[in-house]
Design a protein that fits this description.
This protein has about 325 residues and is of the alpha+beta class. It is built from eleven helices and eleven strands. The chain folds into four domains: about 70 residues, Arc Repressor Mutant, subunit A; about 50 residues; about 100 residues, SH3 type barrels (Roll), CATH 2.30.30; about 90 residues, Alpha-Beta Plaits (2-Layer Sandwich). It has a five-stranded antiparallel sheet. It has a four-stranded antiparallel sheet with strand order 9-10-8-11. A two-stranded antiparallel sheet has the order 1-2. Helix 1 crosses helix 3, helix 2 packs across helix 3 and helix 4 runs antiparallel to helix 5. Pfam families: HTH_11 (PF08279), WYL (PF13280). InterPro entries: CBASS_pafABC_assoc_protein, HTH_11, WH-like_DNA-bd_sf, WH_DNA-bd_sf, WYL_dom. This is YafY family transcriptional regulator.
Length: about 325
């Protein structure tokens, strides 16, 4: 067994009994008693509250409050947990308050040297994501509980960017955080199929009291990705798109989440994609506008004409405002 495994074994034996001597621990773990002493010292250095009593009935024991203390983590593990918590908080994790309590408890039971190092690493990392408001966090908590308990929900859902809402009964299968937005994926009784719904567009939510059974092996993550990613499974339905330009601009373009799956060939100054026609004429022009004159469309002609239409409409919109 590794040193870490042996240390954890000592910890669990001390948690399961009131007191154990070094000799008893050495016999249980089949190791030298001096090795037990070293492991006990290492556990104490990591913040584990081990009490040593001398005398005939002496031995090692744990302070009572350690039953609620965290597991023993080394410095890198503690740093990773705290950094992960920073990402979760910025993403609008629904149990942020409990997460803060867990991190505070982690810091409480570490030693002073590790605490100093943790604070240095914590200050050295910042995460910037759109913040979820209190209403959305509350909504996320309700949906998360419904997912875990397989409870059918009654929701009022805002359609698109309008003000009208629709009543839906939803069997929530899972929550997904994607591109700074939270989605609930589940079976929509109104449409009779699995759908995804943005949490920030749910205006009200109530449990119906009903329950459901989630399909076996269903992945909310995979469903959401498949619903937003281009469908490149039928090559005969795809059209060729060739774009040339500056190398750095092409690097960025080829790494775009909407295009990366359609990339079929790349040279230093040209990229070749195979994409759905609908996507090429609707979403792609908006994406390409961000690159300005650093790229040039080589084909198809339909995309060039569409770019002219999009830019012309933008010109007319703002030209009218300037001339007013």
């Amino acid at each position: 067994m590794s040193k870490a495994d042996n240390m954890l074994s000592i910890l669990w034996m001390l948690k399961s009994r009131k007191r154990m001597t070094a000799k008893q621990l050495a016999e249980k773990l089949e190791m030298n008693i001096r090795t037990v002493y070293r492991y006990i010292d290492a556990l104490c250095a990591s913040g584990v509250p081990i009490v040593s009593d001398s005398g005939h009935n002496g031995g090692y024991s744990l302070l009572g409050q350690f039953n609620e203390a965290p597991l023993v983590f080394d410095l890198d593990e503690q740093k990773a947990l705290i950094h992960a918590a920073q990402f979760a908080q910025e993403a609008g994790y629904p149990y942020g308050e409990k997460l803060n309590q867990a991190i505070a408890k982690l810091k409480m039971y570490t030693n002073q040297e590790q605490l100093h190092q943790i604070n240095l690493h914590e200050k050295g990392l910042d995460v910037i994501l759109p913040q979820a408001d209190a209403a959305q966090v509350s909504m996320l908590q309700e949906v998360e509980v419904a997912v875990a308990q397989s409870s059918t929900l009654h929701i009022e859902y805002q359609k698109g960017y309008g003000t009208s809402t629709e009543t839906r009964h939803l069997d929530p299968y899972g929550l997904v955080s994607w591109k700074s937005k939270w989605y609930v994926v589940g079976y929509c009784h109104l449409r009779g199929e699995v759908r995804s719904f943005r949490i920030d567009r749910i205006r009200s939510i109530v449990s119906t009291g009903g329950t459901f059974e989630k399909p076996a092996d269903f992945s909310a993550r995979q469903f959401l990705l498949s619903s937003v990613m281009p469908n490149n499974e039928k090559p005969e339905e795809l059209i060729s798109v060739k774009i040339s330009g500056k190398e750095q601009a092409l690097n960025d373009l080829c790494g775009h989440w909407f295009l990366i799956h359609g990339l079929v060939d790349r040279t230093r100054l040209e990229a070749h994609f195979k994409l759905e026609e609908k996507m090429v004429l609707n979403q792609l022009p908006v994406i390409l506008l961000n690159y300005g004159r650093s790229i040039q469309i080589q084909e198809p002609q339909a995309l060039k004409r569409r770019m002219v239409e999009v830019t012309k409409k933008l010109y007319e919109q703002y030209a009218a405002q300037v001339n007013d």
